[in-house]
Design goal:
By secondary structure, the protein is α/β, with parallel strands linked by helices. It folds into 2 domains: 70 residues, no CATH class; 109 residues, no CATH class. Helices cover 41% and strands 14% of the residues. It has 8 helices and 7 strands, in the order βαβββαβαααββααα. The strands form 3 sheets. Strands 1-4-5 form a 3-stranded parallel beta sheet. A two-stranded antiparallel ribbon has the order 2-3. A hairpin with a 2-residue loop joins β2 and β3. The mean pLDDT is 90.
């Protein structure tokens, strides 16, 4: 199997499509496909660029058609946490909306995505649900893929708290989000449990 690794699209659907063309992928009725290679997306589909939803449509169509694989990036994790109510703080979320300094920063980082989904709560929830289906890493024959850092001790610690497909469980997300909590190095970079 031959793979093309594609990272950090950040809502730049036009650049993604140009890259796919340059790598000899062709758009079919069901999405982009290469004759003999598979794309692997390493997360960070959203935030920053002008085409959040179009980017997600491209990636989701490729995954559905079997033309791609994907892992979660920190921006997907942040979107999930932004959307998930905090279990202990009424009116707050796992990624703060109201903290005096962090709330504004969090919104600014996530603003481009929110501009496209905030007025459509059903679609927003469907996207969050899809983010939750993304594995934190892939361990394939001949290749390992993760968004930020292959840190085996932390991955060993995380594994029993994930689904069988290496996806986040809501209870892990709630226990590991917030000040002074361990955040998965597999997504964010470094750190120990």
């Amino acid at each position: 199997m031959h793979y093309d690794i594609i990272g950090d699209i950040h809502g730049h659907a036009d650049k993604l499509e140009a890259l796919l063309v340059r790598m000899d992928y062709r758009e079919r009725g069901w999405g982009w496909r290469h004759a003999d290679r598979t794309a692997i997306f390493v997360g960070d589909f959203i935030d920053r660029g002008p085409h959040q939803l179009r980017t997600l449509e491209i990636v989701q169509a490729m995954l559905k058609a079997g033309a791609a694989l994907a892992v979660m990036g920190n921006h997907e994790l942040n979107a999930i946490a932004w959307h998930t109510p905090h279990p202990e703080q009424q009116g707050e979320y796992l990624r703060s909306h109201v903290h005096p300094t962090m709330g504004d920063k969090n919104r600014r980082q996530h603003e481009r995505f929110l501009e496209e989904v905030e007025d459509d709560p059903v679609r927003h929830q469907k996207i969050i649900d899809w983010f939750m289906t993304l594995p934190l890493w892939l361990d394939l024959p001949g290749i390992r893929v993760v968004h930020a850092c292959w840190h085996q001790p932390l991955m060993d610690w995380l594994r029993p708290h994930l689904t069988g497909q290496l996806q986040l469980r809501p209870e892990l997300l709630q226990s590991q989000t917030g000040p002074r909590r361990c955040k998965p190095a597999a997504i964010f970079g470094s750190g120990d449990p």
